[in-house]
Amino acid sequence: MECNESRQLIEAAIDGELDLLRHIELESHLSGCPECARISEALRARKAALRESLPRFTSPPQLAGKVMAALHADGAPMPASIPKLGPRPMKWPIWIGVGIAASIAFILAAGYQWGNARARSDLLSEEAVSDHIRSLQFNHLSDVTSTDQHTVKPWFAGKIDFSPPVIDLAAAGFPLTGGRLEHLAGRPAAALIFHRRQHAINLFIWPIARNAVSSRRSELAGYHTQSWTQGGFNFLAVSEISAAELSQFSTAFQAANPG
Amino acid sequence: MEAPVPSAPPTFENLMLPHLDAAYNLARWLLRDPHDAEDAVQEACLRAYRAIHRFRGGDGRPWLLTIVRNVCYSHLRKNRREPEPAPFDDDTHGSTHDPAEANAVAWREIQSERLRQGLDRLPDEFREIIVLHELEGLSYREIASVVEIPVGTVMSRLARARRKLQAELIALSAKETPHGV
Fold first, then answer.
1. Chain B contacts of A76, Cβ < 8 Å?
2. Percent of the residues in chain A that have a pLDDT greater than 90, as a whole number
3. Which of residues 77-106 of B touch A (CB under 8 A)?
4. Which of A74, A190, A198, A217 has minimal Cβ neighbours within 10 Å of its Cβ?
5. What is the pTM of this model?
6. In percent, how much of chain B has pLDDT > 90?
């Protein structure tokens, strides 16, 4: 190897970008050429100085939060740290009816029943949205990851006391990606995870038992929820996809579920 | 039954947020202002999020840095008062210095602040390539994809950038000791 060629290769060699064969050729040239060896030594010192002493700016601590907030405003899930959504204050306090005439008490009681049902269903949506966010945050979407309904369904057996309907909706544009155990409305629930583009949909399923959910949609902190009942089960879907798409999902699931 | 090891699909958050420092460092060096750099990173993350369907997997860093770089350059174009600089030409920015001149700088004693000043004086294209390679540790190939130039050009531009930095450092110390030594 000539000095000319060697000098063109020294930097690439120091950068770790030279192929092995030419590296060996270069090394053998350097061992016999004090001038090139001296240059190589100087370039090596230069690189070390750049790597060690050039200041690297680190992002200010608030930047990650700002970025997440900007994404969230744009419709993204997963704000960096959303506190678990707490229960809302009851809209209709019980004591309101105390000591009031029976007829008025009856009206109030009816109102309270309605308010209570509504509050309960709000709480449920909040709990589900909160579970959804947590599942994204802690990267814990699935306990069982599979796109095969015949793998996901048996996985729940022995873990919960019911057998949830597990259906892959890939044909409708909502591929099943896994399942997870959840706790919702004070009892174990099955969570099925579907995807729509890069967005996750959590579908919570639990037996109706005493409390059937009402069919309703809601929006909370940018997430949409939709609930319905079918074949003895409550269903509650949560996602950051649009309400229209979530409704499409719900329709597709109900159509594919034999009930 | 044994449950498979859970592996959630990667989210935007865990693909891109680990590279926030790299994104900020590049923006900070290109724009030379902490607030502009923050804004640029935010804008870049938003663009990256909207275009995530175009991400083909692998390391998210070169991908995010490509977007950061584009945001920075459009910011610079918008805010530059002087007429748009001529397109960067590696040949006219060449240096005839012999690499032996690396010996003219006492690299082992060089101060961090002096290096910062020297790098700050380089044209954007030289500054960014040193930042990408020496500070962010990107390979020639990764730099080629971020800067959108051939690998061969990465190699020659990087060599020129270092030589130019060297010349700036020599000029800076000459300024400090105007009467020579």
1. 12, 49
2. 19
3. 99-100, 102-103, 105
4. A74
5. 0.55
6. 49
* Number of residues that make up chain A: 259
Quick one: pLDDT band at residue A135, thresholds 50, 70, 90? Answer: confident
Scan residues 32-51 of A and list those with Cβ closer than 8 Å to B.
Answer: 35, 38-39, 42-43, 45-51
CB contact under 8 A, A59 and B20: yes
- Could you tell me if A69 lies within 8 Å of chain B, comparing CB atoms? no
Which tokens belong to A18? 């030279």
Q: Do A49 and B116 touch (CB under 8 A)?
A: no
* Domains assigned to chain A: 3-53 (no CATH), 85-256 (3.30.200.100)
Domains and their CATH numbers in chain B: 10-80 (1.10.1740.10), 95-181 (1.10.10.10)
Query: How confident is the model over A96-109, as pLDDT tens digits?
Result: 444 444 445 555 44
